[in-house]
Amino acid sequence: MADRLDRYRAMRDPARTPEPFGAGPERAIAGASRLFVVQKHAARRLHWDFRLELGGTLRSWAVPKGPSADPADKRMAVEVEDHPIEYADFEGTIPAGNYGAGAVIVWDRGAWQPVGDPVAGLAEGKLVFLLHGYKLRGEWTLVRTRRAQGGKQEWLLLKHRGDAFAGPGRPFPQESVLSGRLLEEVAAGTSRADAAVREAVRLGAKERRLAEKDLAPMLAELRDAAFDDAGWLFELKYDGYRLLARREGARAELRYRSGDDATALFPEVAKAIEMLPVDAVVDGEVVVLGADGRPSFQALQKRGQLARREDVARAAIEAPATLFAFDLLAVGGRDVRPLPLAERKQLLADVVPRLGPVRFADHVEGRGLALFREVEARGLEGIVAKRADAPYRAGRSSAWQKIRLACAGDFAVVGFTAPRAGRARFGALLLAVFDGEGFVFAGSVGSGFTDRQLDDLHARLAPRIRKTPPCRGPVPRGRGNTWVDPEVVVEVRYREWTSDGLLRQPVFLRVRDDKRPEEAIREAAAAHDPPPPSHAPAADARQVKITNPDKVFFPADGITKGELVAYHRAIAPFMLPFLADRPLVLTRYPDGIDGKSFFQKDAPEWRPPWMRTVTVHAEETGRDLEHFLVDDADGLAWLVNLGTIPIHVFASRTPALERPDWCVVDLDPKEAPFGHVVRLARAVHALCEQLGLPSYAKTTGQKGLHVLVPVGGQLTHDQARTLGELLARAVEGEHPDISTTARAIPARGGRVYLDYLQNGWGKTIAAPYTVRPRPGAPVSTPLRWSEVNARLDPSRFTIRNVPARAEKLGADPLRPVLDARPDLVAALARLRERLEGRGARPAR
Questions:
Q1: Where are the compositionally biased (Basic and acidic residues) regions (predicted)?
Q2: From its phi and psi, is residue 769 left (phi > 0), alpha (psi between -120 and 50) or beta?
Q3: Residue 586: other Cβ atoms inside 10 A
Q4: How far apart are CA 126 and CA 67, in angstroms?
């Protein structure tokens, strides 16, 4: 590594520039990861420095026009000297007279993932990789050209087609993801935060440094139901740890609500706080966002339990935390806590970035019911209502009220019961709440644990065993109860409190390492909380017994029911996001694919109590049917044990069943050549790109392909069908010799049928990764658009290779269809103009 940085150091004088010079090979190797950074740099000429961490340095290219999300743009990238890893944090001004003099901001950063061997790719002149940044996402390529500038090799930086992050007309925000400043502000030595300080002075904020005792968070009371009120602000309730963050003299400090220091655990957040352009104290919630953009508490817990500095440094890049800042306690040495919340949030918006490891948590004014409905539709945790005129006061206050989707609370663990029914370690946890004087027994929780959680919790509790209960109240007596000192806090979901002060139908959710036992209080509204929605996990223990696992289901291939179950357990992490909260339609083959089969929509009464269902009105029969909903691998295994091949899914999710997530064009060849299917799929994709719509492909598992266009719940089912018809007719008009929208088989004339009628209320498609009842056990498989070519053979994707393929790809190419919300109004307008200009008959 020293050799690779020799050129960098020879071009700079450490006495004259603030740029880092590297901490040596041992630092780089210890923190080895896959970091990428893009720095916007106003040197002699404005450019963007694109850097990838590899082999202990940042391999670097200067991109004069900056990265582009448009695959049609081929951005020149001039290879320059390697930079030290520490340069990824550099933001500021390189003084005049130095190499590269001018302002620099951290324009984007994150993790990168090579596709193939990156060292070989660079040597061969083609490096393919995935970016997981705040601005740059998806698949990219660096391709070496034959040109050079002043001895520097030229490359091209290209965005791949076919993912949700590609497309023309997608401008990137230009602010730094660390400080929130524009490049021009860094050059001028100013920022928006200067205006925030002036405004705080104008509003009468007193000059005062907040002491440690002042850094106590304001807390919300529990409320039963959402409401509308013009005097209130409504925010998302984030599923994370509460943090108070202070920036003082370019030094950052992060503290949990308990007062414990969290600075070293979240260095990426601390760095962003350190780089704020003004001293401030910020209140917020730290989360780790999953691949679906939602907070993952499990991922956050893993971050919080890391101890080795190297592990923390790696996780900060590969599983970065985000602090959603929702309040401001001080700015520029001024105490703003007495100001109304609405004014504090206006100041906060000028202090913290909108994108990056620290970002402004926005709100809606007055419309709590609409926000709660949206949160419920997306399966988030709840909302927080805050009085717009309220000052910031430590402790619990009726001026802040949290409204959850289900009853949940924090409880101190005061003991455990003996294991039973074959379970290891313990049967249930004994729980208590703190009432200010001591702990009061609250009942027990015996469901919701994984085997690993049973082991981990028992290991934590065993050293804390004591002889007597550490709590009062309706404490259980007799043998079988082991008591412990109340030091571990867990979160539990429950239906209600009984008149005896005990929890009814509790389910373990997780350990709360960020909270102390004294914070496990019974909140005021808990006694009359509403029951949880139908998707709350049942308290029954899950037992999935596979009957006749050796029974052959695919005779030509010798594939057994047991192998089919094993496939579904292996593919569950990739398949479940497409099943979550969607009504399912099953086709059952109890004797294998050569036996009789039947459809099943209505779940039987003898189903396990933990298998969820949703009531859907069937228009064709006029009946209400109980469709299965699947949450996890156990649910999948239970359905497969019934002989289910395949699973079909609705395009919409509960509770917003009237709003689909996608529109599908089903390319059904019947006897047409598969090459025509490929041509037409690419034609649909090209059309969508011209309209500004993302689109994604998957095999059906049979002879055809599905092209899915995300609509993000913005259309009704009828409107989605109209969109599908417009797309199909546009493609039919361009390829009348090989495609048709005629449904009757005789009218197709050997052409591929562009089926848009699979859109509509109650219509389903084969679920991604579902198995089809054909020899070879083919699988409906998500594809990258680069795979949709003349070499594509859908029969190659089977239960024997698809799990390994999914693991190798990492990023599911179809996954973005679940969350994308394109501009449908503009796209439909362009599509109608296209059809009417061609004289085609538009859909009604």
A1: 1-16
A2: left
A3: 20
A4: 17
d(C-alpha 216, C-alpha 281), whole Å = 11
CB 301 within 8 A of CB 511: yes
Query: Going by DSSP bridges, is the β-strand pair 218-222/395-404 parallel, antiparallel, or unpaired?
Result: parallel
- Structural domain boundaries of the chain? 2-188, 192-404, 409-528, 552-650, 662-837
Strand partners, 149: 152
Instruction: Please state, as a whole number, how many other Cβ atoms lie within 10 Å of the Cβ of residue 293.
Output: 10
Q: What is the pLDDT of residues 124-135, one digit of tens each?
A: 999 999 999 999
Spatial distance between the Cα atoms of 780 and 786, rounded to a whole number of angstroms: 17
Residue 536 has pLDDT above 50, yes or no: no
- Report the candidate in 601, 592, 808, 772 with the shortest Cα–Cα distance to residue 698: 772
Q: What pLDDT band is residue 696 in, cutting at 50, 70 and 90?
A: very high
Per-residue pLDDT at 504 exceeds 80: no
Render 492-507 in DSSP notation, one character per residue: EE-SEE-TTS-EES-E
Q: What's the rounded Cα separation, in Å, for the pair 641 and 619? A: 29
pLDDT band at residue 809 using 50, 70 and 90 as cut-offs: confident
Could you give the residue numbers annotated as active site?
A: 237
Instruction: Show Cβ contacts of residue 117 under 8 Å, excluding neighbours closer than 6 positions.
Output: none
CATH fold of 409-528, please? OB fold (Dihydrolipoamide Acetyltransferase, E2P) (2.40.50)
- Longest CA–CA separation in the chain, Å: 86
| Contact yes or no for 93/104 (Cβ under 8 A) | yes
Is-contact 692 709, C-beta < 8 A?
no
Reduced to 3 states (helix: H, G, I; strand: E, B; else coil), residue 146 is strand
Pairing of strands 612-618, 598-600: unpaired
Q: Is 361 within 8 Å of 236 (Cβ atoms)?
A: yes
Asked if 679 and 738 count as a contact pair (C-beta separation under 8 A), the reply is yes
Task: Using alpha carbons, select from 663, 669, 750 the residue that is nearest to residue 702.
Answer: 669
Q: In Å, how far from its chain's centre is CA 641? A: 31
Edge-to-edge strand list for the sheet holding 764-766: 598-600, 584-588, 644-650, 764-766
> CA-CA distance, 475 to 740, in Å (whole number)?
72
Helices and strands in the chain, H and E counts: 18, 44
Would you give the distance in Å from CA 490 to the centre of its chain?
A: 24
Q: Find out if CATH 3.30.470.30 is the number for domain 192-404.
A: yes
Instruction: Please check the confidence at residue 25 and state whether its pLDDT lies above 70.
Output: no
Q: Which residues pair with 710 in a beta bridge?
A: 662
CATH superfamily of 662-837: DNA primase, PRIM domain (3.90.920.10)
**Per-residue pLDDT tens digits for 175-202:** 999 999 999 999 999 999 999 999 999 9
What are the helix (H) ranges across 288-330? 297-304, 309-318
The tokens for 171 are 């401008």
99 burial (CB, 10 Å; 0-12 / 13-18 / 19+) is: middle
| Closest among 464, 468, 522 to 498, alpha carbons compared | 522
Contact 733, 741 (CB under 8 A): no
DSSP-assigned letters across all residues of 399-455:
EEEEEESS-EEEEEEEEEEPP-TT-SS-S-EEEEEE-SSSEEEEEEE-SS--HHHHH
Q: Which token pair is 394?
A: 């430590």
Contact between 659 and 716 under an 8 Å Cβ cutoff? The reply is yes
Task: Decide: 207 and 334 in contact? Cβ < 8 Å.
Answer: yes
* DSSP per residue, 785-815: GGG-STT--GGG-BTTTHHHHHHHH-S-TTG
199 strand-pairing partners:
none
Angle, in degrees to the nearest 10, between helices 309-318 and 297-304: 150
Q: One fold for both 409-528 and 662-837?
A: no
Alpha helices in 642-708 (DSSP H): 674-691
